[in-house]
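pinned: reference chain
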Amino acid sequence: MIDLENVVSYLKDNTNTVIKDNWSFLESTGVFHLTPLDSLDLCRHLTKAELFEYPCWLQNDVIRLILEESDLGESLQNELLHSIFCLALTEKEGGSSFQNVATQVVRIDNIETVRGEKVFISNGSIADHIIFLARDSDQRLNMYIADTVNSMSRKQMKLISPMKNYDLAEIVFAGATCRCLFPNNPLKGMFVLNKAMAIERLYCSVTMLGMSKNLLSIFVQSYKTKRHMLLDNHHWKYAYADMKKKIYLLESYVSKIETTYVSGKAISPSYAAIAKSFATDTLKSSLDIVIALTGAQSIVENSIINKYDAYAKAFFNAGGTKEIMAEIIGADL
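pinned: its structure tokens
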């Protein structure tokens, strides 16, 4: 049994530690092989503690699903428990749309090598293994894995101050050797990836829901402090009511998807996309209201509002932009 409070406490006490050291600590605690129920609980604990830079679910839930359903599943189980992985999908020119992927894998004498560039990759500079999406010689999309010791360059992207503990990287493949995860069935690879992305969108929604609830608490504290200085208290009461209503509705919807996931059933891609789109809108409106109430505090470099604003922008794009969510939601038209 993992002591989640201890995990959170350690991370809060080591915010100035080298990023990889904190992820190595997380690996040592066993958070990379939690049940879905415990993984969701950890996500909520981290979000409540305002530790947005540690998406443990990315490896524990998303990457584990891809590896377990791949043709290399059994041989990679040990690495999954004792190594750090990243998932490289987004490209500089094509964004996060799968159809625009240009990264190319070439097979010569049974050896596969990859060339291309990936950007905005969580844990990209510290990962031991990279799972990525690329095209094969027939231009079919498939999933591959590469170790981070050969023919590639990785560079941690420079982020604004509030995100100093978040590892986001650019990766350039320059003939790196790799292995195909679904060599016999590329279509299965894309099916599994879409299942994995639905899980990612669930966790993005859970995180943004938690951030919105935190912002609601910040709003209440700020209102109590500034109430005597405000010209129109009714305006802020209406704003509070609107925040609370949206958060309640989002929590109800996300809770139903969580129940599906914890029961072992696959999450509907469109339901996950609706949740993420709704969570994005709720967080954005919550931020706007709190920024309006707190005023100049929101532009101070190390303010907590500044941190929420920075990480909100990251989660708005994680798992696909709002435009991509709209495409998924409307795909059955």
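why pinned: The beta strands are 85-88, 104-108, 111-122, 129-135, 141-147, 152-156, 168-180. The domain at 85-184 is CATH 2.40.110.10 (Butyryl-CoA Dehydrogenase, subunit A; domain 2).
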